[in-house]
Specification:
Layout lengths: L1 H76 L18 E2 L12 H4 L11 E3 L4 E9 L14 E3 L17 E3 L1 E9 L3 E9 L2
Parallel strand pairs: 1-3
Antiparallel strand pairs: 2-3, 3-6, 4-5, 6-7
Length: 201
C-alpha cells in the first residue's frame, strides 16, 4: 500500500508542475495581447486627436478668410471699386487687377503663392494675437483691361424681370463681368490655406 501510494505521488507531481508551466505561458501570451491592444488603442486615440485638431484649425482659417472676402466685397459694392469706371484699370491700392491673373498649378493666382510676384500695395490684414495674416486679390475675369466687353470677359447673364432665374437668359437681361476673390491665410506653425469665391455686381 505504501509503495503504491508513493508511486502514485511520484506520477502526480510532474503533472502539476507541467500544468503550472502551461498556465504561465498562457498568462504571458494574454499579457502580450493586452499590451498590444492597449498600444493600438492609444495610437488610435492620438491619431483621432490630431485629426480633430487639424479639422478645427482648418475651420478657424476658413472663418478668418471670410474677413478678407468681406473687405473685398465692400470695395466692389461701396468702396473705391464700386463704379464701372474704376474697374477698367488695375488698382494696386485695392489689390485689384482688371485682367485675369495667371494661376499656379493649384488654381490660385501666382501673386498669392509667390511673394516675389506680388506688387500690389493694399496692407495685409493681421491678427497678431492669433498669429494670422490675410492677403487677398481681386481679378476681373477678362483677357484685357479697358471697358467691359462680353467678347473679352467671362460674364453672367442676369434676368430682366424679378421673377426670372439668373441662370436663364431673359430678353433684355444684362451681362455682368465676373470678379474672382482669392484669399491666402497664413497661420501659426507656418500653415497656409487658400480660398476663392466669385462675385457679380
Amino acid at each position: 500500500m505504501t509503495s503504491s501510494s508513493a508511486a502514485r505521488g511520484g506520477v502526480i507531481r510532474p503533472l502539476r508542475q507541467a500544468q503550472r508551466g502551461v498556465s504561465m505561458i498562457v498568462t504571458l501570451i494574454a499579457l502580450v495581447l493586452l499590451l498590444v491592444g492597449a498600444a493600438a488603442m492609444m495610437r488610435s486615440v492620438d491619431t483621432s486627436s490630431v485629426l480633430i485638431g487639424n479639422l478645427a484649425f482648418r475651420r478657424d482659417l476658413t472663418n478668418r478668410a471670410e474677413r478678407a472676402i468681406m473687405n473685398a466685397r465692400t470695395a466692389l459694392v461701396s468702396g473705391s471699386l464700386s463704379s464701372e469706371s474704376s474697374r477698367i484699370a488695375n488698382l494696386a491700392s485695392e489689390n485689384y487687377s482688371a485682367v485675369r491673373l495667371d494661376n499656379g498649378s493649384n488654381g490660385v493666382p501666382k501673386v498669392l503663392t509667390q511673394d516675389s510676384l506680388f506688387t500690389m500695395t493694399h496692407a495685409d490684414i493681421t491678427d497678431a494675437d492669433a498669429g494670422i495674416t490675410l492677403r487677398y486679390v481681386i481679378d476681373r475675369q477678362c483677357i484685357s483691361a479697358g471697358a467691359f466687353s462680353t467678347s473679352t470677359c467671362e460674364v453672367l447673364e442676369s434676368a430682366s424681370d424679378a421673377g426670372g432665374s439668373n441662370w436663364l437668359r431673359k430678353p433684355g437681361g444684362a451681362s455682368r463681368p465676373v470678379y474672382r476673390i482669392s484669399v491666402r491665410v497664413q497661420g501659426p506653425r507656418s500653415t497656409e490655406a487658400y480660398f476663392q469665391t466669385t462675385f457679380v455686381d
